[in-house]
Each structure stands twice: as C-alpha cells, then as structure tokens.
Specification:
Layout: H1 15-21, H2 24-27, H3 31-47, H4 53-71, H5 84-96, H6 109-145, E1 150-155, E2 158-164, H7 165-190, E3 192-193, H8 209-215, E4 220-221, H9 225-230, H10 233-259, E5 267-268, H11 287-310, H12 324-348, E6 350-351, H13 353-361, H14 367-376, H15 381-398, H16 407-413, H17 421-424, H18 427-432, H19 442-460
Parallel strand pairs: 3-4
Antiparallel strand pairs: 1-2, 5-6
Helix pairs in contact: 3-4, 3-6, 3-8, 4-5, 6-7, 6-12, 6-19, 7-10, 10-11, 10-12, 11-12, 14-15
Bound molecules: arginine.
Length: 461
C-alpha cells in the first residue's frame, strides 16, 4: 500500500477498504494527462516564484523520465499505489528526492483528477469526431454513386414511395453531421481549466490560473473553485452525445440487418465483415451490425448511471465522483470501436441495385403519383385517392403492378387516364419529379451532395 496520506491515522487501512477505495486499476488510463497537468503546474509554480528554477527543472526532468519509462514499458503502473496521482508522485520522489515532495504545492487531488479527466475526455471528443468524419466520407461516396439507384422508401416498414439509395444514405449523413456538431459544442463548453481550484476553495499561494490554463490549451480557468472540482456535466454531455451516436448507428444497423436478410436481399455484407455458424454451413451472419446495435445498451446505461450517481451529491468533491471513470472509459472505447467497424462494414458492403429497383416496382410505391396524375387532370384529390385505391385492389387480386395494367383497364375505372399514365408513374418519373429541397429527385439531390462535399472539405482546413 502506497498512500499520500496517513499522518493523522493511528491504524493501517483495512485491506478490503484499501482495494474498495483504490482507483489505480482504471485511472492509470490517463497517466499521460496526469503528468502533463503536473508539468504545467510546476512551470507555473516556478514562474510565480513558489518553486525555484532548480526545483522546477528537477521536477520536470523527473516527470519527463516517468512518462518516457512508462511509454517504453520500462516502468509498470502497479496496484500497490492507490491511484495514478500517488504513483506519479511516489515515483518522482524516488527519482529526484526531496524536490519531488514540492510537486503537490497548491494543489489537491480533487483539482488534479478534475483536470486529468477533462484533458482525457477533451482529446477523445475530437477523436470521436474524426471517426464520424470518416464515416461521412464513406456515406457521401455512396450517395454520389447512387443518385439513380431506385429503392422503396418505407413508412411503418411498408413500402411507401420510391426514393434513391443516395437519398436514404443522406438521412444518415444528416444524423452523423448533427452528432459532430454536438461534439463540437461539448468541446467548446468543456474547454475550461479546473487546475488551481485546490481541494475546493482555491489556495493561499499566488497561483496563476490563467497561465496553466493557457499552457494546457484551455480557453481559460473555470471561474468557481467549488464548481471546478465537482463539475462532471461535460461527461454527462459526452455520454449523452455518444448515446445519440449509438442510437443512430443502431438504427442503421437494424436496416442493414433487414436488408441483408434472405427476404430483402438489398445488400450483401462483405465476407470480411460477416461471420458463420458452427452448425449451419449455409449461414453468413451480420454479427457486427448486431453487436453494434447491442452495445447501444451499455452506452445508454452509462449515461443513466452517471446521472444517477451525480444527482444527490452535495458540493463540492465527493468520492462518488470516482465512479465517472470506468463508465466513461468503457463508453468511449465502445463508441469509437463501433464507429470504426461500422465504417469498414459500410465501405465494403455490396448494394444489390436490381433487387432494390425491383422491390420499388412491386409494392405500389407509385400509387401516390397515379393519384397526382388524376389531380393534374382536374380530379379532386380525395376522388383520385379512391380511384387509385380501387386500381390497387384490382392489381392485388391479380398479382399485378400498376405499370402492368392495360390502358383499357385504367379507363374502365376512370376515363381520365390517357396513354401518358405509364410515363407518369414510372419509377424514374416518380423520383425525379420530387425536386423540393431535401427530396430524392436527382437535381435536388445533386445540390445537397454539393453542400455536403463543401462541408467535408471545409473540415479539412
Ligand atoms: N480517485 C479519485 C477520483 O477519481 C481522485 C480524487 C481523490 N480525492 C480525494 N479527495 N480522495 O475521484
């Protein structure tokens, strides 16, 4: 047991208590941030004359050595320390002696851990965003290649009206684009530095909090020291944004699973992203899509868990807050893994264009357009709706599509129909006459694709 405290205790900590309380098994994940934060703190202490230059040089050198040794695998982070902060401080003192004992001047583990977690999450928010950007690149490529790939659009999972694959993918482009903007908002709001808040009430040393904030790339210091050590809002927001990302991925996965089924056969998942069955030789299963859909539960769970942990905590720091870490680490790893795998799966998926087209053709997805045809010839919409309804019934009874009816059959139900009805209800006409902004018509889609291309290019800069 290596602890940073003990002076006022008369007994050893019970072993079970020690293990229950310790966090090294998971907070070692941010050893790098802990060391970077300490370096900034020490530089500031020297600048303010609280440490001598010699002391600060020795500490910085010692910290750099610890970082290098850990990264090189020469120094193991072991469970004999209570947490990552104790590990670093104890190692520093081992290396440089008494000067190391001055590292913690004007600092508490409360502002230290608040800083470490913020630095860690801040970098991960950007990485999550970068992964989403790669997903958007793949989506946009598929869109560009499929502005003429007709497929049924669904409502209630019933064929509704024809759309294009580009249009369907565009819906997901919008979702993940919003996810990125949420991450950026969060990044901006979380980018304030808690260091220098001390345990809760600041310190009596003349710390320069603006300086450390700047050294660590923050927009500025947090303005209330009690809030600084007890704020975990940014993690709730990050978990919430990650939950929405998972919800989007899960919906997409559900569609891919459906589309990949024997009944739909709209897509075929690449062999590299499918799995087999131990008993049924014919099977090729969409396990990756199912796992992504399944893992959504743990990310939602983490969000609920953290919200519940925080709800009854009085100001300022309380140990309950240590519970934020495992949840957030697990969610970040899960979400990043899911986005990366999903992107690979989507990038290699085969779209069965013929099947999609065929499916759109055989499901009365042009019934609305047949009614619109009558309306354009002066029939009130409600009457037109009834006429086409009767035509659909007629077709269902005979196993036909609207396009298969003869002109006589059309005219038997309404004399308004003319020979141009076939052109009016062809899939291509149905799609390409839908030209309002956001609709699937090729010209409308082309404008949106251009906006998306510019958006992705602007992100490069
Ligand atoms: N492991 C602790 C946490 O994650 C670090 C802060 C400890 N502070 C304290 N006063 N015990 O929150």
């Amino acid at each position: 047991m290596a602890q940073l405290w003990g002076g006022r205790f008369t007994k050893e900590t019970d072993q079970l208590v020690y293990r229950f309380n310790a966090s090294i098994s998971f907070d070692q994940k941010f050893y790098r941030q802990d060391i970077e934060g300490s370096m900034a703190h020490v530089r500031m202490l020297a600048k303010q004359g609280i440490l001598t230059e010699a002391e600060s040089d020795a500490i910085l050198k010692g910290l750099r050595g610890i970082l290098e040794d850990v990264e090189a695998g020469k120094l193991a982070i072991t469970e004999e320390y209570e947490d990552i902060h104790s590990f670093v401080e104890a190692n520093l003192i081992d290396r440089i002696g008494d000067a190391g004992k001055k590292l913690h001047t004007g600092r508490s583990r409360n502002d230290q851990v608040a800083l470490d977690m913020r630095l860690y999450a801040r970098a991960e928010v950007l990485e999550t965003d970068e992964l989403l950007k790669k997903l958007l690149e793949v989506l946009l490529r598929i869109m560009e290649e499929n502005t003429e790939t007709i497929m049924p659009g669904f409502t209630h999972l019933q064929k509704a009206q024809p759309v294009t694959l580009a249009h369907h993918m565009g819906a997901y482009f919008e979702m993940f684009k919003r996810d990125r903007s949420r991450l950026r908002d969060i990044h901006e709001r979380m980018n304030y530095c808690p260091l220098g808040a001390g345990a809760l009430a600041g310190t009596t040393y003349p710390l320069d909090r603006e300086y450390t904030a700047e050294l660590l790339g923050f927009s500025g210091p947090m303005l209330n020291s009690m809030d600084a050590v007890s704020d975990r809002d940014y993690l709730v927001e990050y978990l919430s944004a990650m939950s929405v990302i998972m919800m989007h991925l899960s919906r997409f996965c559900e569609e891919i699973i459906l589309w990949n089924s024997n009944e739909y056969r709209f897509v075929e998942i690449d062999d590299a992203y499918s799995t087999g069955s131990s008993i049924m030789p014919q099977k090729k299963n969409p396990d990756i899509a199912e796992l992504v859909r399944g893992k959504t539960g743990r990310v939602y769970g983490a969000l609920m868990s953290l919200l519940t942990t925080l709800k009854g905590i009085p100001l300022a720091y309380n140990k309950d807050m240590q519970e934020d870490k495992e949840l957030v680490f697990d969610s970040i790893d899960t979400v990043k893994g899911c986005i990366a795998l999903f992107t690979g799966m989507l990038d290699t998926i085969h779209f069965c264009r013929e099947r999609m087209n065929d499916s759109a053709r055989h499901g009365f997805t042009n019934a609305t357009d047949a009614a619109d045809y009558l309306v354009n010839h002066g029939v009130p919409f409600r009457d037109a709706h009834g006429i086409v309804g009767r035509l659909v019934l007629y077709c269902i009874e005979r196993g036909m599509a609207l396009d298969d009816l003869s002109l006589e059959e059309y005219q038997a139900i309404s004399p308004v129909f003319g020979a141009d009805i076939y052109e009016a209800i062809s899939m291509e006409t149905c799609v390409n006459r839908r030209l309002t902004i956001g609709a699937p018509g090729k010209a409308a889609m082309g404008k949106v694709i251009k906006v998306y291309r510019e958006y992705l290019q602007a992100c490069e800069k």
